[in-house]
Amino acid sequence: MSQFDSVSFLKTVPHKPGIYQMFNDKDTVIYVGKAKDLNNRLKSYFNSSKKTIKTDRLVSHIHRVEFTITNTETEALLLEQTYIKKYQPRYNVLLKDDKSYPFIKLSKERHPQLSLYRGAVNRKKDEFFGPYPSGYAVKQILALLQKTFPIRQCLNSTYRNRTRPCLQYQIKRCLGPCVPGLVSDEDYNEQVNYVRLFLSGQSDEILKKITADMLKASSELNFEKAAALRDQLQAIKHINEKQAIYNNNDNLDVIGFHYELGLACIYVLFIRNGQTFGHRSYFPKVPSNTELEEVIETFLGQFYLQGNQNRNIPKKILLNFSLSDKQAMEETLSIVAEHQVKLVDEPKGDNLKLLNIATVNAQTEVKNKLLENSTIKQRYDALKAFLGIKKINRMECFDISHFMGKNTIASCVVFDDKGPVKSEFRRYNISGITPGDDYAAMEQVLTRRYSKKDLPEDKIPDIIFIDGGKGQLNQALQVFEKLQVNWDKHHPILIGVAKGAERKEGLETLFFEAHGKGYYLDDHSPALLLIQQIRNASHDHAIVGQRKKGVKQLTDSALEHIEGVGGKRRQALLKHFGGLRELKNASIDEIAQVQGISKSLAEKIYLNLQQ
């Protein structure tokens, strides 16, 4: 590789704010950065007296550099996050946080419904509370609300088609608005208002409101309602006592950071209106010898700025790390949040207690992860010793799944030296074979997977596991004999993993050849435990894919024979109702509400699905 001419390049770089991208000889972006002064920042990479080990390694792979001038450092920071998300550069700190964050949705209709919601929010159509750190947190809150405020959480299709109240009404967890005469709109909306106050964090307001309503009911001699409100009042006080860990009603994100032995954990505690809103731990990918400030700064950028419009940025963020360029980050966060945001790294009083909680949890998470990693290392070492090899960088495992010969799916899972690499898990639809022919399915998936003549060296596995006995292994060996793959420097070990008697774990037989008795490992062997983990991951991945394919085929077959319902309309119907079962329960008027579905077509769909 030709040496990058940094001297000539730096003469073209201005002393202005902006971002820069570094490319290797394959024209892949390997690093994205921002700078208040592009010339000074880029010059530091090629200054031999100030380079770190990470910088030295990065510079050795630079083939060319591009830069983009921006008006301000804030613009540079926003553009940097866009490019990091787009290119996922090898030498950047990367936060793997692609999940959409869930909300609690309160629908705007005669009898509002509470539900978990993911996706873009439309506050004109419904009310939304959140986002919350996880779906589990939302489900816990919904269960709590159902016990305290009896408003419905059932699907609209269920609610609109009931003629008598369900079990939730019988156990006093729903007022039964689905059946006329069980509850007045006024009483139902009273409970909805309580929920609205509760989810908004207005604890004092809700207690005052229920107390006033209880006294009013008592004065009107409606003692049954007064008793119910009294019970609600006690339940809410109990909830507040359990949840409140903070005296003020501030909105905060509390960020504890800990780094040890190459592993970083960022523990975020979400405080809303003085109550715990949830927590979440993040383990960003940190290249070796990265400065800790870069880890924190990049985390803040990716967590708050990478296009997540649903992320609520609070006015105050507590940090257990002091940033040298804190002002630029505050200005950028304030622009995105449309209100002033402060980074507080020296909190006092209750804020300091909260930060200590987050820090201790970050330390605990790192210790637990390191302990888990040491167990993984023990298993890898045992497998290397069993196979007589010096290193294992990559392993792949294949499995076949079908239902009575139909909907055949092949799975491939990938493990590296740290465990599963889920981003590289793949499923393959198998077609053109005799139904139930697992050998033909295995031949097809291996051919499709390894038919490229020149695979990148880091994509060539050290070990390939085949879920099956001598027959499946023999099929795999025949495939590799036919393939013209350039693996001269790297020959994977093929291993067939046959299930034991009654498919019991611990009795697996390992085959390296298509004949002979095979090998057994002790059922407590760390090497066998690793093989079981890989095999089970492949099996589960195949099963899930096969079931999804079966459900999709069943759904499509129920709709595709209806005249006038094409692919786009099928998708719109299923997305609107959430599934075929809910669609079958829908009325003609409800079906007609779906975009692109006329009243006459809705009637046709309804009649076909009722057959």
Written account of the structure:
With 611 residues, the chain is α+β, with helices and mostly antiparallel strands. The chain has 5 domains: 6-92, GIY-YIG endonuclease (3-Layer(aba) Sandwich); 102-242, no CATH class; 252-373, Nucleotidyltransferase, domain 5, CATH 3.30.420; 378-549, 2-Layer Sandwich (Nucleotidyltransferase, domain 5); 559-610, Orthogonal Bundle (DNA polymerase, domain 1). The protein is built from 20 helices and 18 strands. The strands form 4 sheets. Strands 12, 13, 14, 15, 16, 17 and 18 form a 7-stranded mixed β-sheet that branches. A 5-stranded mixed β-sheet has the order 9-8-7-10-11. Strand 16 (463-467), helix 15 (470-482) and strand 17 form a beta-alpha-beta unit. The relative contact order is 0.06. The model has no long low-confidence stretch (mean pLDDT 82).
Task: Please sum up the structure shown.
Residues 254-480 form the UvrC family homology region profile domain. With 611 residues, this protein is an alpha+beta fold. The chain is 44% helix and 18% strand.
Outline the low-pLDDT stretches: none
The number of helical segments is 20
The total beta strand count reads 18
Q: Remind me, CATH topology of the largest domain?
A: Nucleotidyltransferase, domain 5
**Strand share of the residues?**
15-25%
Radius of gyration (CA) equals 30 Å
Instruction: Label the structural class.
Output: alpha+beta
Principal-axes geometry comes out as globular
- Counted up, domains total 5
> What is the residue-averaged pLDDT?
82
Q: How does CATH name the architecture of the largest domain?
A: 2-Layer Sandwich
CATH class of the largest domain: Alpha Beta
Q: Describe the largest sheet.
A: 7 strands, mixed
Assembly category: single chain
CATH homologous superfamily of the largest domain, by name? UvrC, RNAse H endonuclease domain
> Can you give the helix content as a percent range?
40-55%
Through-space gap between termini: 69 Å
InterPro entries: GIY-YIG_endonuc, GIY-YIG_endonuc_sf, GIY-YIG_UvrC_Cho, Hlx-hairpin-Hlx_DNA-bd_motif, RuvA_2-like, UVR_dom, UVR_dom_sf, UvrABC_protein_C
GO biological process, one term: nucleotide-excision repair
Keywords: Cytoplasm, DNA damage, DNA excision, DNA repair, Excision nuclease, SOS response
Pfam families: GIY-YIG, HHH_5, UVR, UvrC_RNaseH, UvrC_RNaseH_dom
